[in-house]
Amino acid sequence: MTGKQRKEWFDWIKALGIAAVIAIIIRMFLFSPVIVDGPSMLPTLQNGDYLIVNKLSYSMGEPERFDIVVFQATETKKYIKRVIGLPGEHVAYRDDKLYVDEKPIEEPFLKERLDQLGDNQTYTFDFALEDLPGGNQTIPEGYVLVLGDNRNNSTDSRRLGLISKENLIGETQFIIWPPKRIGPVD
């Protein structure tokens, strides 16, 4: 192997090494793929959807109501849910209606589901913040209340309690697979 060939090989190896380091940094600190596993976010997200999670969202800002977030639920499980309650708020559901500090809040992402319900059917069972694990009167600073969009089939704050901001991995912003669903997450 000549000196020129050796230099060319070294340049290629160096370029691939730099690309690998950049990819690792991006995946660890900026963006990460995640796969939806289960029906808890139907109809917004479907089982098997591949999403991009923006990991910078909450290191540079605060969660907002209705953000769809990924959080570390247990040592081995990550969950995808929607932020419903923010620090300092009291949250309650009565008659399929969200109340924040006793004011009704529209949930446009549930409208189609609620319109399909027949009489005497409930989509979100009544509860108040103080009924959840922890028994809080308001959501403490550094925590959020999350629910799945498929309210009858979701392990969320009603069972897990409030979610610490420290456990938030990031905000889902884009569906990258399957092709017919590519686009921003609503």
From TrEMBL:
Main location (coarse class): membrane
CDD domains the record matches: S26_SPase_I
Domain of life: Bacteria
Transmembrane residue ranges: 12-36
Gene3D superfamilies per UniProt: Umud Fragment, subunit A
InterPro entries in the cross-refs: LexA/Signal_pep-like_sf, Pept_S26A_signal_pept_1, Pept_S26A_signal_pept_1_CS, Pept_S26A_signal_pept_1_Lys-AS, Peptidase_S26
An example Gene Ontology molecular-function term: signal peptidase activity
Localization: Cell membrane; Membrane
This enzyme's EC code(s): 3.4.21.89
All copies of domain Peptidase S26, residue ranges: 10-177
Keywords: Hydrolase, Membrane, Protease, Transmembrane, Transmembrane helix
Sections of the chain in a coiled coil: none
Reactions that this protein is recorded to catalyse: Cleavage of hydrophobic, N-terminal signal or leader sequences from secreted and periplasmic proteins
Membrane topology label: Single-pass type II membrane protein
Database matches in Pfam families: Peptidase_S26
PANTHER family: CHLOROPLAST PROCESSING PEPTIDASE, SIGNAL PEPTIDASE I
Protein family: Belongs to the peptidase S26 family.
Protein name, UniProt field: Signal peptidase I
Species of origin: Pontibacillus salicampi
Encoding gene, per UniProt annotation: lepB
